[in-house]
Specification:
640 residues; alpha+beta; Rossmann fold; 5 domains; seven-stranded mixed beta sheet; 23 helices; 45% helix
């Protein structure tokens, strides 16, 4: 029985570190480096920062770096838990232990040795499994009192039975049985085993729990504070609306705006250029390019003068603003409208915004369903923040706060008796992450934010914050169950071993049977902890009945959401690359076609990426999905 208990404990430790072992095995032993114009194969340990490495299809990436030439499709599932491959291009960051499924590229090493993402994950998990939660320290204190008390009980039992006239052999047998059955093995295993298994399960899902204390505290969180940019939103602006004035077409308006913005360094201009390039729109050469601070840009295209900017730019150029109401509506939605005019003729508006992540609204709904208050804290202006809050379903929004103000807001909540978790990704979030009871960093964020946090979400998905809290709650439930059974076992076993039943029923506990019972208690505690390996976050897909109407004047699709909601669980996700989608009406048509298929629980269309992400409640053949999209008037490139 003792051997069985040790076997289960060892097996639990092995399973917990299995994800980490797989990661370490994914990092290649050697790497191909370019030095003095030649390719050399060297051990991974000899790679230095700024080395140029060659990564071919099928190879693992040895260290962290940035792609300098070429492209690839990377399997990052070992690090992030995300099963879908991710396309990487020049200037994109890549991490060690990920696999280049296809493509060929050169990369510059930025982090080597113990500084790589893989090494940091291993270190964090090791620290978490070796640390102790407050409840574990409580168990240690109890054990410190429990052991001498049991020794006293054993001695008293021997003395009592001797005084009652029984022999020395019988009395000693009673004393030994008390000592054996009360061995606090189960009490000692109750907490560390559950924490070890829970931490390993989190690592396998891309959730890094830095300490046992963070696990315990996260399980008692009642308020979650979210940063906006990069946490609730994608963190980079994209084109959301293209509203031309007849007879100018959407593509023509975008081509003109992007041709001007190509020479601009503004991030909003870069978003417009990216959108034009993603649609395959050819850009023109702009001459006499000028930037007007606080207003916009100007230049000539094909001999005609164009301006692009805000309302002040139009006013300065003597252009009549016939789209003021439309621009105000866009601004109220948290978007930045960019006017485009030719000479004194207004051509239309291109709207740009930092859109919310696809999972943000669901994550907020899941947190609220768990009884947790959600607050968004941002340094952005109040109008934009309120718009993002409405889109994400966040009722309380605090805007225009400085980094030190974020820390102060967290402190105020704590003074009100709240247990606060802060989720952020930027340098400005570091003070708040450190102040919060639990700091949760988005994995794609800055190093200082990750260093200041207690939990790191490798997938940069807000739903993983929900998963982290649910996992912490599951671990704490498991620990409490283990402690209960450990104490329950001793409260029953010690009196029986002391012989309280002997006088009435003649029952006495043999020391060998006591040893077996003691081992059985350890087996039960370890077995219960191993159940955490089966942990799966309880996420539901919140689906809405939508009514869509086309605004002919604006050339966009206006989507209204009814109050009818349904909750379904999804079992599978597929991503479909689609050709032929050029506007909001197109994406609405694809969404409607996919949503009509039985078994589809959710369909999200990304117009910029030309993809549709489909959540399935049951296995649906690719041909069924393909036919629905083709029947809607579009073509399918592939389905992953």
């Amino acid at each position: 029985m003792i051997t069985s208990g040790e076997f289960l404990e060892t097996r639990g430790r092995g399973k917990t570190s299995e994800a980490i072992t797989k990661l370490m095995n994914l990092a290649p032993k050697t790497a191909t480096v370019v030095r003095d114009g030649s390719e050399l194969v060297i051990p991974r340990e000899e790679i230095v920062v700024d080395d140029i490495l060659v990564v071919k299809a099928g190879e693992s990436i040895p260290v962290d770096g940035v792609i300098t030439e070429g492209s690839g499709v990377l399997d990052e599932s070992a690090l992030t838990g995300e099963s879908l491959p991710v396309g990487k291009h020049v200037s994109d960051a890549v991490s060690s232990a990920t696999i280049n499924q296809s493509g060929h590229f050169l990369m510059r090493a930025t982090r080597v040795g113990d500084d790589t993402t893989l090494a940091q994950i291993v270190r964090l998990v090791d620290e978490a499994t070796s640390s102790k939660a407050p409840v574990a320290r409580l168990a240690d204190k109890i054990s410190g009192i429990f052991v001498p008390v049991v020794i006293v009980i054993a001695v008293l039992s021997v003395l009592v039975w001797l005084l009652l006239g029984y022999g020395i052999e019988f009395a000693l047998s009673i004393g030994i049985a008390v000592l054996v059955i009360s061995c606090p093995c189960a009490l000692g295993l109750a907490t560390p085993t559950a924490i070890m298994v829970g931490t390993g399960r989190g690592a396998a899902r891309g959730i890094l729990l830095k300490s046992a204390e963070a696990i315990e505290t996260a399980g008692r969180i009642d308020t979650v504070v979210l940063d906006k940019t990069g946490t609730v939103t994608e963190g980079k602006p994209v084109v959301t609306d293209t509203l031309p004035i007849h007879p100018v077409s959407e593509d023509e308006l975008l081509a003109l705006a992007a041709s001007l913005e190509k020479l601009s360094e503004h991030p909003l201009g870069a978003a417009i250029v990216r959108e034009a390039e993603s649609r395959g729109i050819a850009l023109r050469k702009a001459n006499d390019f000028r930037q007007i601070p606080g207003q916009g840009i100007a230049g000539s295209l094909d001999g005609a003068e164009y301006i692009a900017g805000n309302a002040k730019m139009l006013e300065a150029g003597g252009v009549a603003n016939t789209l003021l109401v439309t621009a105000e509506r866009l601004a109220a939605e948290g978007k930045t409208p960019l006017y485009l005019a030719k000479n004194t003729e207004l051509l239309g508006i291109v709207a740009v915004a930092d859109v919310i992540k696809k999972s943000s609204r669901q994550a907020v709904a899941e947190l609220e369903a768990m009884g947790i208050d959600v607050i968004m804290l941002t340094g952005d202006n109040a109008r934009t923040a309120q718009a993002v809050g409405r889109q994400a379903g966040i009722a309380k929004v605090v805007a225009e706060v400085l980094p030190q103000d974020k820390e102060r807001e967290i402190r105020i909540l704590q003074e009100r008796g709240k247990k606060v978790a802060m989720v952020g990704d930027g340098i400005n979030d570091a003070p708040a992450l450190a102040r919060a009871d639990v700091g949760i960093a988005i994995g794609a964020g800055t190093d200082i934010a990750i260093e200041s946090a207690d939990i790191v979400l490798m997938k940069s998905d807000l739903l993983d914050a929900v998963s982290a809290i649910q996992l912490s709650q599951a671990v704490m439930r498991n620990i409490k169950q283990n402690l209960f059974w450990a104490f329950f076992y001793n409260s029953i076993g010690i009196p029986v071993a002391a012989g309280v039943l002997y006088g009435t029923w003649g029952i006495v506990l043999n020391p060998m049977i006591a040893a077996a019972a003691m081992s059985l208690s350890s087996v039960s505690v370890v077995s219960n902890a191993l159940r955490l390996r089966l942990f799966v976050p309880k996420h539901s897909i919140i689906e809405s009945s939508r009514g869509e109407k086309c605004d002919a004047g604006a050339g966009t699709v206006v989507t209204g959401m009814s109050n009818t909601t349904k909750t379904r669980e999804h079992k599978m996700k597929k991503v479909i690359r689609i050709e032929g989608m050029n506007c909001g009406h197109c994406s609405a048509s694809v969404t409607k076609a996919l949503g009509a298929i039985a078994g589809v629980t959710q369909a999200d269309v990304d117009l910029a990426a030309k993809t549709a992400t489909v959540m399935l409640g049951e296995d649906i053949a690719d041909d069924v999905l393909r036919k629905a999209i083709v029947d809607a008037g579009f073509s399918v490139v592939d389905i992953v």
